[in-house]
Specification:
Layout: H1 29-33, H2 61-72, H3 80-88, H4 101-104, H5 117-148, H6 150-158, H7 163-191, H8 193-200, H9 206-209, H10 212-236, H11 242-246, H12 249-252, H13 254-290, E1 300-304, E2 307-308, E3 313-314, H14 316-327, E4 332-338, E5 348-353, E6 356-368, H15 372-376, E7 380-383, H16 391-395, E8 398-402, H17 403-408, E9 418-422, E10 427-436, E11 451-455, E12 462-467, H18 472-484, E13 494-496, H19 497-502, H20 506-540, H21 542-550, H22 555-589, H23 601-626, H24 630-634
Parallel strand pairs: 6-11, 8-10
Antiparallel strand pairs: 1-12, 1-13, 2-3, 4-12, 5-6, 5-9, 7-10, 8-11, 9-10
Helix pairs in contact: 5-10, 5-13, 5-20, 7-10, 13-20, 13-22, 13-23, 20-23, 22-23
């Protein structure tokens, strides 16, 4: 193995958490080329590199992008057709702002898994919904309280208070409440910071809360909420005539009740959207994690193979020795090796039939060793698997393809057909000897693409091992000892394939965690608004209930009547919120080529949940109102 002494030139600050890549050390191409200068990876033959360009202020990146072909063409040993494709834009070097990469870039061979702007929109929209509920809830509760203060307002206006002064009072009260709420929120955020970090799988610190930018935004949101929440009582109550207010007509009119009903409906519409969305997201995640992928992922581990820079790839002899030794360990059923694990990125290159060179398709490529199909239990539909007894298999002149590739090449009987496969490194001619049943070698975020497989030990990156499924630790300990005999300086690291595949849907799981918490908070706040409405009803309808009881109405009938009013509001909210929740989640589901059948259960569960929570939240107030003594409520009349 080639080695070279390197000098540490600098120590740099760690990359930000939201960067599109992170590193432990940086090496220059110049240093690496001295180890193996003939490696095509360091030459213009290979375009699997990301280049960073710092432009001058005001440069139009589109114009700069258009100039790149003229710069690179002198260095390319391409055919005339390839050069023309570069000139005409069929193939091109694309530029993108570095600030767009983390959330908006989804190229093949990204340096790390990027975020998704869609989930920012989802959580941002959820945050807005939650703030809407907060505002509505505050308006609902303060309105109910303000109605009790209507006579106070009337008396103050009679004594000469001007509307502007009353508006200012309501705004100040709203601002004070919101300020106290902000202080409590900052305190609780600090207290639950570690819990939130665990839920989101992100690392948050105190500095993320107590910094100028975050605090400024928080204060602006606080002021906005204070203004919106204080708007109704400030402008509506201060505008009433004292004579009307002091006669009590406003407090007994339907205007205040209608407003509170509308606000409660809006709150539960938002709650219905969030609960429905959470249930549908949960169902889609369960679907992706449990869907049959077309291969065996249980009790299969992968071990990253060390690449020898001097050899320009894997040490084949060492690879074979390791596989043979692993195979003799009790608890190991079978071993093989593979270039790319299911769920990872795959190179794609053009492939065409030898007899039809004008019709090309892009196919994902997978280099494997013998026995890989057995380890992963990939089903052979036509032809055969690779076999060591066939010299052409060993030489890599035979191919196995998947169903999708056979269909896109319009092959009814693909066995024996000759293919031409053009990669960055070489052009391979070979014969199709097998067709495997389609399996999901990428995540379920993408549909199944054409796939070609070839035996090539030099392209291998991972050893894959199928275990018995019992006494994992003893087997792994024995494998570690065998590994250390060949790789003394490299740590033995393994990963279970099923766990790696589950991590492909980490963004969805994290979104569900936060979304569910928001939904729970929304329901609690909505119930508080409903409770506020029930308390206002207790104050306004206590005499009506007393009269009804004197006229012979039973407590059961009164409870039924009162709960019926709330049930109508919840029904209206569900009729509006459930369809909206469905439509919004359809936008999210459109990102997946493989979707779960939603059915009716998420909507039934959301409806039943909201009904039960809503009714239970007001039952105590309603029962108390229904059991009041008429003599106590009507005595002063």
């Amino acid at each position: 193995m080639g080695e070279q002494a390197l000098t540490v030139a600098a120590v740099v600050k760690g990359m930000p958490e939201n960067s599109h890549f992170h590193f432990q050390s940086l090496l220059s191409y110049v240093s690496l080329k001295t180890i193996n200068s003939d490696n095509p990876w360091f030459k213009w033959e290979d375009f699997g590199h990301f280049n960073y360009i710092k432009t001058k202020q005001g440069v139009d990146h589109k114009l700069l992008e258009a100039k790149i072909p003229d710069f690179v063409i002198p260095y390319l040993d391409w055919s005339e057709s390839g050069i023309n494709e570069l000139k005409t834009g069929v193939n091109k070097f694309a530029l993108q702002p570095i600030t767009d990469i983390h959330l908006n870039s989804h190229l093949r061979w990204e340096l790390e898994s990027n975020g998704n702007i869609l989930y920012v929109y989802i959580l941002g929209g959820t945050f807005i919904f939650l703030m809407l509920i907060v505002v509505i809830n505050y308006v609902n509760l303060t309105t109910a309280k303000s109605l009790e203060r209507a006579k106070e307002v009337g008396i103050r206006k009679t004594l000469g208070a001007i509307p502007g002064g009353l508006k200012f009072q309501f705004y100040v009260e709203s601002f004070l409440f919101c300020t106290v709420g902000l202080l409590l929120a900052l305190g609780l955020s600090t207290l639950f910071l570690e819990v939130f970090s665990a839920i989101t799988y992100k690392t948050f610190g105190i500095s993320d809360i107590f910094n100028v930018g975050f605090l400024t935004k928080s204060i602006l949101i606080c002021i906005t909420i204070a203004f919106l929440a204080g708007f109704y009582p400030a402008f509506t109550l201060s505008a009433f005539e004292p004579s009307v207010v002091l006669k009590g007509k406003f407090s007994t009119s339907s205007q205040g009740n209608r407003l509170r009903s509308i606000l409660v409906i809006m709150q539960f519409v938002v709650s219905a959207i969030l609960i429905t969305g959470s249930l549908i997201i949960l169902k889609q995640i369960d679907f992706m994690k449990s869907k049959e992928l077309g291969f065996d992922q249980e009790a299969v581990i992968s071990i990253k193979i060390h690449q020898d820079v001097a050899l320009g790839g894997v040490d084949v002899i060492k690879l074979k020795t390791l596989q043979d030794q692993f195979a003799t360990i009790p608890g190991v059923l079978s071993t093989s090796a593979i270039s790319n694990l299911p769920g990872e990125q795959f190179d794609q290159n053009p492939i065409y039939l030898k007899d039809d060179p004008d019709y090309k398709i892009d196919a994902s490529e997978l280099y494997i060793d013998f026995n890989a199909a057995k380890v992963l239990n990939i089903k052979i539909l036509l032809g055969r698997d690779f076999d060591k007894s066939h010299e052409s298999d060993t030489k890599g002149t035979n191919f196995i393809i998947n169903e999708t590739m056979a269909n896109q090449l319009n092959l009814d009987n693909p066995i024996g057909e000759e293919l031409v496969w053009k990669t960055t490194w070489k052009t391979s001619n070979g014969t199709i000897v097998g067709v495997v049943k389609d399996f999901h070698f990428r995540s379920l975020h993408e549909s199944i693409q054409p796939l070609i497989m070839q035996v090539d030990p030099f392209g291998i990156n991972h050893i894959i091992v199928k275990l018995e499924g019992q006494q994992f630790q003893q087997t792994l300990d024995a494998m570690k000892l065998a590994y250390k005999l060949h790789e003394e300086d490299i740590e033995f690291e393994y990963h279970f394939l099923d766990q790696q595949l589950a991590e492909l849907y980490g963004a969805e799981s994290r979104t569900l965690n936060v979304f569910s918490i928001f939904a729970a908070i929304a329901v609690i706040l909505a119930c508080l608004g409903l409770l506020g409405m029930a308390i206002a009803m207790l104050n306004q309808k206590i005499k009506e209930v007393g009269i009804r009881k004197i006229m012979g109405a039973s407590s059961h009938e009164i409870i039924q009547m009162m709960l019926g009013q709330f049930a109508r509001l919840i029904t209206i909210a569900l009729v509006i919120g459930i369809p909206l929740g469905y439509l919004l989640t359809q936008i999210w589901l459109s990102e997946f080529p493989y979707k779960v059948f939603i059915g009716v259960m998420p909507f039934v569960i959301a409806s039943v949940m909201l009904f039960l929570v809503a009714i239970l939240s007001v039952s105590a107030v309603v029962i108390r109102l229904a059991h009041t003594n008429p003599a106590d409520t009507l005595r002063y009349e």
